[in-house]
Amino acid sequence: MGRIFISAAHGGKEAGRTDPGSIAGGTNEAKEMILLRDLIVTELRARNFEVLAVPDDLSAQQTIAWINSRARQKDVALEIHADAASSPSVRGASIFYIASNDERRSNAELLLVALLRRVPQLPNRGVKPDSASGLGRLAFCRQTAIGSLLMQVAFLTSPDDRALLQTRRRDFALGIADGLASWSRTVDPGSGGEAEPTYPPINININGQKYSEQGILINGNAYIPIDLVDRLRVDLSKAPNVRRVSYRRVVYVKAIELQDFHVSISWDSASRTLSLRSILQIPAGQIDKIMSNGYTSEVQLQLFLRNNNEGAIVQFPDLPKLYREEATIEGVNYDIAFCQMCLETAFLRFGGDLKPEQNNFAGLGTIGGGAEAASFESARIGVRAQIQHLKAYASLEPLVQEVVDPRFRFVTRGIATSINQLSGRWSADLDYGNKIMAMLKRLYESAGLI
Asked: What is the pLDDT of residues 164-183, one digit of tens each?
């Protein structure tokens, strides 16, 4: 039977110091996940599963390398995390799987149901593709060589979740062990020892045309021949983390990784066909420029918002229109501004210190560092303030409309012309720009632009 790898997130060295993960309620993520992991390992071994626990002093990348150096074809891997949010009312468990992998999604559902069966008081936040995570990709899901999942078992910042985790830790462990046992048996029902792997072939379409060569399916992930990557004009020479495998003397590349090179990926399980669309309808070098054109329609913005929060349009029905109008007046890319709003407000769910009635869609502060974020008299004025603040960062040009941004005059004009340069400026989060870019790519994929 295949083995089970399990990693407790955090605790290792990141950027030269020990990483405790999120901290709340007098404890930290690394401590809680190590305690939970140890119980899961004990339970699985009692059921005669072979379990490998990742050493706790490894970094995130070292963890993946440690697993990959030991993994065999029918093994599986799970990393457990505790989530965190600005609002203590945010609760629940969720699991991330590698995007465009139906098999892995089913595995994730199996595991989440098993946990919630043991701990029914824990809210179900669902299974999600890793493209829906903050950075648009999760290294543990993408780079681990075997089938892998990343589980957020609870919110450490929620007193209710934290109390459940600390008082019913064994129930959490039993539920996760149940799910891992079922997943492992699904991958390897006990057919015998390790044999030379045989991977099923898949069909490939490029821009609507059938490609003459086939790809292969490994652990539910589509792989394409390296020759096709070259034909798409994708340069992987500076992308060492993109997974490559050699099978029957041909080198294959994990298709989902090509999304970072503006290649759209979709999968039709019925026909076992991978579809690639390589046409980028946005000029090269312009996708991250704040002072540029938007490319989506008002309807596309509405659909994107509604698909991620069904109630958002009910509360702010004109918001897509406001972003297109206000940003166009000042020459700001309304797609970028809109995606920043989606990130800052969690698709208009708000939470933390931001409230809907403040009409503050980007976490703008007040003069003098007040305890609350700025408030605006209407949604239009709130959008206008955000647009003006973006223009302050990205341009030396004067405003077209009267200033409503309370902190416009404090920005060093033109200091951040691209999304990535907002990191550490608009937000202390050094991944802030990457998160906006990930959201922007989700928008453009949903609109069929990439």
From this structure: 999 999 999 999 999 999 99
Calculated CA dihedral for residues 308, 310, 315, 321, nearest 10 degrees: 60
Note every long-range contact of 402-410, with CB atoms under 8 Å and residues 24 or more positions apart, other chains counting. 404/376, 405/364, 406/364, 406/365, 406/366, 406/367, 406/374, 407/364, 407/365, 407/366, 407/367
Q: Domains in the chain, please, with CATH?
A: 4-187 (3.40.630.40), 201-277 (no CATH), 298-446 (1.10.530)
CB under 8 Å to 450, separation ≥6 — which residues?
262, 263, 264, 277, 280, 281, 282, 441, 444
Half-sphere exposure of 409 (CA within 13 A, CB side): 6
Enumerate the H helices of 363-431 as residue ranges.
379-394
DSSP string, 299-320: HHHHHHHHHH-TTHHHHSTTHH
Sequence-separated (6 or more) residues with CB below 8 Å from residue 293 = 286, 333
- How far apart are the C-alpha atoms of 115 and 112, rounded to whole Å? 5
Question: Is a pLDDT exceeding 80 seen at residue 35?
Answer: yes
- The whole-model pTM stands at 0.81
- What distances in angstroms separate CA 95 from CA 106, 370, 403, one per listed residue? 11, 37, 44
Distance CA 434, CA 101 (A): 23
Other CB atoms within 10 Å distance of the CB of residue 286: 11
